[in-house]
């Protein structure tokens, strides 16, 4: 009997919007002063001084296929890429604004906050007090900083910065590890929701100088101990020494990994994606696509490059020849093993549920503010679109 290859049926309501060329030149505003506001409008952004990054409101993956108004988040993204915001930082991942009423402001007390519907979300340190004037700056590094302003108008001490509170992305100049703050990356819940997912990337908190990916706080992957400028289990992370400088610092006071660009024209990001893969991306010379290297504990099958890669232990009914592959279509005479509306599940949990169920041939995901996951069993007929 021919072996059955499992399929993942992914029905996302994502679409990408192109930036619309306006008939006027956009004024570059990279500072937010006390009392000033950013509204949830297409034209209302902060733009870093040389135009590398934008800060404003956005919706990941645009609107949902369920006809519900998209959640709105305050984030930072590369301003010159053609697709709709691909955020490198999200200010309010756990507390979205449910409509376009949000206003971002720096108040008279020196606090960065989102105001909507009579409520407020504090972005900067809520316990921080300032005695003088402060201003927020969007830097060309992608860092958003809040700093004091001296009496003669020159920038003073940095009070808060977004690089201390990363989302799923490590940008050049960011530090991963402990330097007063314990900085880790968190995978997104789904492609449409920046709520923290199952995976977390950070520096080993024990004595070893290595990177670790945890899944549900259990060690999922390790890089191997840093030696001679490289991680032995993931040498691909540090091969581009022509473009980057890589540094691992470890002493009694701090322990962190960072990288920097040798040329400021190089755009790069490390992303911990929903599947627990570490993506190292460099913007291609055409300026529109990313050249990406994937680091993962999984071994990829060259015959099915789109196969979902979550490391799972073999079961009594599955072996290395079976794959879960994203595809589009529908199931005729579908038979459900179960349906799960658990709001704590992410995409990797759906994969694990199907993999561990010997009758499962695939699962369907509707993702917006939650995941709806019917799991299909053998006997269902798949009809591709």
Written account of the structure:
With 385 residues, the chain is mostly beta strands. The protein folds into three domains: 14-165, Orthogonal Prism (Agglutinin, subunit A), CATH 2.90.10; 170-297, no CATH class; 303-384, no CATH class. It has one helix and 31 strands. The chain has one helix at residues 347-356; strands at residues 7-10, 31-33, 37-39, 46-47, 53-58, 73-78, 87-90, 103-106, 112-116, 119-122, 133-138, 144-149, 155-161, 169-170, 175-178, 182-183, 185-190, 193-203, 211-215, 218-222, 244-250, 255-261, 268-272, 278-283, 290-295, 325-327, 329-332, 336-340, 360-367, 371-377, 381-384. The strands form eight sheets. The protein has a five-stranded mixed sheet with strand order 26-1-29-30-28, covered by helices on one side. Strands 2-11-12-13 form a four-stranded antiparallel sheet, with no helix packed on it. A four-stranded antiparallel sheet has the order 3-8-9-10, with no helix packed on it. The radius of gyration is 22 Å and the shape is globular. The relative contact order is 0.14. Residues 1-25 form the signal peptide. This is G-type lectin S-receptor-like serine/threonine-protein kinase. It comes from Prunus yedoensis var. nudiflora. Keywords: Disulfide bond, Glycoprotein, Kinase, Lectin, Receptor, Signal, Transferase. Residues 29-159 form the Bulb-type lectin domain.
């Amino acid at each position: 009997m021919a072996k059955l290859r499992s399929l993942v049926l992914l029905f996302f309501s994502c679409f990408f919007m192109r930036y619309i060329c306006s008939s006027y030149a956009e004024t570059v505003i990279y500072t937010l002063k006390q009392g000033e506001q950013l509204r949830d409008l297409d034209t209302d952004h902060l733009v870093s001084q040389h135009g590398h990054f934008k800060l404003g409101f956005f919706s990941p993956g645009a609107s949902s296929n369920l006809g519900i108004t998209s959640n709105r988040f305050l984030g930072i993204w590369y301003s010159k890429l053609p697709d709709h915001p691909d955020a490198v930082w999200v200010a309010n991942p756990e507390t979205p604004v449910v409509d376009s009423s949000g206003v971002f402001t720096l108040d008279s007390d020196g606090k960065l906050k989102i105001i909507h519907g009579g409520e407020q979300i504090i972005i900067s340190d809520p316990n921080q007090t300032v005695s003088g004037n402060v201003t927020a700056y969007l830097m060309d590094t992608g860092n958003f900083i809040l700093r004091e302003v001296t009496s003669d108008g020159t920038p003073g001490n940095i009070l808060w910065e977004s690089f201390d509170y990363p989302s799923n992305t490590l940008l050049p100049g960011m530090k991963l590890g402990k330097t007063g703050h314990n900085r880790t990356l968190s995978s997104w819940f789904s492609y449409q929701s920046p709520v923290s997912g199952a995976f977390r990337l950070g520096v080993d908190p024990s004595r070893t100088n290595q990177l670790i990916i945890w899944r549900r706080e259990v060690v999922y992957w390790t890089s191997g101990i840093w030696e001679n400028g490289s991680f032995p289990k993931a040498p691909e992370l540090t091969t581009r020494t022509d473009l980057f400088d890589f540094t691992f610092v470890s002493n009694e006071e701090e322990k962190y990994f960072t990288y920097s660009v040798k040329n400021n024209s190089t755009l790069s990001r490390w992303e911990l994606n929903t599947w627990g893969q570490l993506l190292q991306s460099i913007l291609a010379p055409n300026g529109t696509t990313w050249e990406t290297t994937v680091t993962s504990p999984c071994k990829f099958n060259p015959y099915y490059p789109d196969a979902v890669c979550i490391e799972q232990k073999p079961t009594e009914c599955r072996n290395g020849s079976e794959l879960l592959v994203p595809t589009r279509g529908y199931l005729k005479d579908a038979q459900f093993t179960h349906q799960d509306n658990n709001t704590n599940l992410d995409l990797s949990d759906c994969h694990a549920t199907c993999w561990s169920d010997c009758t499962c041939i695939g699962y369907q995901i509707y993702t917006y503010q939650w995941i709806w996951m019917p799991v299909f069993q053998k006997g269902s007929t798949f009809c591709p679109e």
